[in-house]
Design goal:
The protein has three helices and no strands. It is mainly alpha-helical.
Length: 62
Amino acid sequence: MGVTVLTVLAALVLKAIAVKLYDDYKIGIWIAIVVTVLFGGWFLTTILSKVSFIPMFLLFRH
């Protein structure tokens, strides 16, 4: 449940960042989205790296 909460919080923060980039710098909304997605990918990777990967291995085991 903690990961879900962190993911939702990360999504809200990233949305706020995209809107702020768009408002402050008047850059294209698509550029703001791309920058935010790239930052979001790094942010989520950082979060997931701190979570045990054992459940993932069990999930993807065939």
